[in-house]
Structures are given as C-alpha cells and as structure tokens.
Amino acid sequence: MSIVWEDKDSGHVVIATGSEDCDIMLWSFDPRLGSSHMQLQHRLTCSGHVSSVRALSAVASDQEGSLVLFSGGGRASLKCWHVEFCSSQEVSVEASVCHEQLRDRISAHSIAELNSSLRLQRIHAKRTNESESRVMALTSFHAHCLEYGKRLGDGYIVVSGWSDGYIRFYHFSVERKKFMHLLEFTFHSHCVLSITHLVLCPREDGCDCMVVALTAATDGQIALWDCQDLLSNGASHTDSAHGDKPAGSHRDPMSIYKAHQSGVNDVAICKHSGLGGWLLVSGGDDNSLYGALLQTSAKSRKVDLFPVAIGSNVHAHSSSITGVGIDTTGHVVSVSVDQTIRRWCLSVAECSSSSSSTEKSVAWKLIQSCFTNVADVSALILLPKGWVLCIDIDQQISALMHH
C-alpha cells in the first residue's frame, strides 16, 4: 500500500492498495475532516494480475497530474500502470479504466507487463519453476537520479525483492513502454520481504548524488546497497524477466544490520532533524522494533552512511509487527497483528552494553497506543493531519488519528 498522489490545494490524497483478489484499488481520502466525518471512498479498480498483488510503488511522472504505478505479485508478474488525475478539487465523480475519458477524475491503464514465462491464465495455468516466484517488495525512482540511469534515457529504475531470495533491478522505458532487465543477485538467501530507498544529494565536497536501496528479508537482516556501484559493475541489458547472470551470483552490501531474530516485515528511513541524521526503523516477526541513527561522510566524491546509535525494543508489541513509519513530527508509528497502533518517541542515549557496535543507543518511549478493528493488519500508511491507515490482505481499511 502506498500514497500515490496528494493534491496540495484540496488536501485530498489518493491511495493504492493491492490484495489477494488480484486487483489494485484506488481510494480517495480527505485527511482534513475529523474522525466523525472520516470517509474513504473507492474510485477505481485496476485488473490484470493473475495472482495476488504483493507490492506497489508509485513515482511522479514528468507529465503534470499523472504518475506511474508499479505493481508486483504472484506468478512472477510485474506491471506498470499510468494513472492520471484531474486538476479540479472535486473528487466525487465516477472513475473509469478508460484512459481517453477526460471527464473522469481518475483513470488508469496498464502500459507494460513483465512475466517470466508465457501468458499465465488464472485457470489451467502451466506452472513452471520461474512462475512460482513472487514479487514481494518494490521501490522505484527516476533513472536520472543515477549517473548510470542517465545513459539509459528517460524512465525509471525499479528495484524488486523476490520470494526466491533474489534482488532484481529493472529499467522501465517510457518511450518503449517496456521493462529491461539490468541486474539480479542474491545476498539474503531468504525471501525478501521489504525494500525501500533514499536519495542522498549533498551540496558540499563535490560529491555525486547517491541512491541507497535498503532490503530486508526473513533472515532478520537489513542490507544497504549503493545502486550506482551495483549497476556499474554488473548490469546486463535484456528484455527478459531474468538476465544472463549465473544463478547464485552474489553481491556484498555497503553495510548490514542484524535487526531481528526472524523476518523483517517493514522498513522505513527518513531524515530526522531532531536526532541529527537519517533514522532507520524496522518491525519484525519477533514482535520487536529496531532503530538506527545513521550519519553521512564524504569519501572520494562518494557519500558513506555509518551508524552512530542503534537500539531495539524487544517488547514493542505482543505479536508480529507488520508496518512501521515515521511521521512528520519525527515520531515512529508501528502496527501489529495484535491490532494495536503505537506511537513512539525516540532519543539517543549513552550505550550501556559493552557488546554494542556504537557508543550510543536508540531509546524507545511509548507515547500513545490505540486499537484498530482491522484483523491481521498487513500494512500501514501515514497521511497528513496525523491520520494512520491500516489495511489487511483483503483490503479492509481502518483510519485512526493521533492527536
């Protein structure tokens, strides 16, 4: 689940969700309204996947009022959708999948798809080893963010995590409307559950912009990757789902964090002005929350990230944590299968453990906790005005607001 668009004038946001019914749904929401008037309205259903939709990632398009939405799921399926919005503040008119009907508020159409085998139908599908792989996580960004991407022309870089433990990079060409395989490798050797990225563009020291991808898997580890280095040292250019790199090709990340005892279900990172660095947080199947404060340093025209404080809350929830986020105030929000949403204030303190790799630790303080009526919460998303949205695998949605 991800916010796909926010209208700064009206305050409305449009949210995309995917579920096991193979559909992607777009919803509109006005976070300015109070909890008694909260209404999440369905706007559009996008069909085309042949198995459950496990991952979504949205990037603003160069065309005003539109964006591209990448979706991935079962049967090794990866698709790209073009979504358009009207500039009007009115959101209540009927939506349609027809791209040409300009009267509609929201329209979307699939402009490309990538399957690792022949077209798969829901019934009588021919199962292959490749088609059993699932896209578990996605993140995407403009190709021009990387020096390597600029050589590929206009388009987007898509980083995907798969159930077979592979991390795969693709380039989506706007002009050709095709995916091009760039790179695949293994590191976690376990199912990749979460992926996100950050873009570092320092203005000092003459350093180049740097895109860092973060991957997390069922091995409990979070790995940080320099996307420019990865692609420059091993990318292949093919239009197939899998490239020519030998199976089992391995890459070493720029840093590794052993965050959890088991699966890492969600990862978030953002610049935290209060703590003076990049705050990395994660939630896992071990019911715990992990936090690391990272700072940057310049080395040979490159930016490096290193930890200055780390810390876990091993009793954060009473069941698996399925979603984490960092709100605009710098507080961390977590949601769990125990049907609680909790808000945390983080601080940096002197480390009391001699086994820690840093001199300082991240301390967790619970400042708010509330219940949600969504059972088996699979994700959360933070919206303006303090709204927290929870969703389960059947697209049941609940909205709660932290005051």
Mean pLDDT: 78
- Major sheet: order of its strands? 17-18-19-20-24-23-22-21
Major sheet, described briefly? 8 strands, mixed
Low-confidence stretches: 87-105, 116-130, 243-248
H/E topology pattern: EEEEEEEEEHEEEEEEHEEEEEEEEEEEE
Strand content: over 45%
Query: Helix/strand/pairing class, anyone?
Result: mainly beta
Distance from N terminus to C terminus (CA atoms, Å) equals 23 Å
Helix content: under 10%
Number of helices: 2
Number of strands: 27
What would you report as the Rg, rounded to the nearest angstrom? 21 Å
Approximate shape: globular
What does this structure look like?
It contains 2 helices and 27 strands. With 403 residues, the protein is mainly β. The radius of gyration is 21 Å and the shape is globular. It starts with a strand and ends with a strand. Mean pLDDT is 78; it is low at 87-105, 116-130 and 243-248.
Question: How are the elements arranged and paired?
Answer:
Elements: E1 2-6, E2 13-18, E3 24-29, E4 41-46, E5 53-60, E6 66-73, E7 77-85, E8 106-115, E9 135-142, H1 147-150, E10 155-162, E11 166-173, E12 178-186, E13 192-200, E14 210-217, E15 221-226, H2 227-232, E16 255-258, E17 264-272, E18 277-284, E19 289-299, E20 302-313, E21 321-326, E22 332-336, E23 340-350, E24 360-371, E25 377-382, E26 387-392, E27 397-401
Parallel strand pairs: 20-24
Antiparallel strand pairs: 1-2, 2-3, 3-4, 5-6, 6-7, 7-8, 9-10, 10-11, 11-12, 13-14, 14-15, 15-16, 17-18, 18-19, 19-20, 21-22, 22-23, 23-24, 25-26, 26-27
